[in-house]
Amino acid sequence: MLSPPGNGTPEQRAQAEGQLSQALGRLFAVAEAYPDLKASQNFIQFQTALQGTEDELQLARRYYNGTARDLNTAVESFPSSILANIFHFAKVQFFEIDNPADRAVPTVKF
After folding, report:
1. C-alpha 86: how far from its chain's center?
2. Cα-based torsion angle of the residue sequence 101, 103, 109, 110 in order, rounded to the nearest 10 degrees
3. Mean of pLDDT values over 65-90
4. d(Cα 43, Cα 86) in Å, to the nearest integer?
5. Which pLDDT value is given to residue 98?
6. Rounded distance, CA 39 to CA 41, Å?
7. What is the pLDDT of residue 77?
8. Using one digit for the tens of pLDDT, what is the confidence trace for 22-43?
9. For 79, which DSSP code?
10. What's the CA gap between 14 and 51, in Å, rounded?
11. Using CA atoms, how far apart are residues 75 and 83, in angstroms rounded to an integer?
12. b/e for 70-106, b at 16 or more Cβ within 10 A?
């Protein structure tokens, strides 16, 4: 069962996204066996919405990683490192997906 990651770490979020990708893969495998489902207007709209959502997630991942890179650079660079030490700012982790199959953008073809 999938549970929302909430404010989890990037690794926890990556794991949740991997589980979601696996569930969607199973859904698409079932849809292949039912031609009437593939031809359904609702299912076609679902495919379009899913592709749009995946594109937005990919953009959000890139934005997060870019912001994390900028923060990590500021935490390590002088003179901002002085303020980072005073206010206890620390480097953050990048959003990385370990499993190459989960890292690939799902292919939505029907």
Report:
1. 33
2. 60
3. 93
4. 54
5. 67
6. 6
7. 93
8. 787 787 777 777 777 777 888 8
9. T
10. 18
11. 8
12. ebbeebeeeeeeeebeeeeeeebeebebeeeebeeee
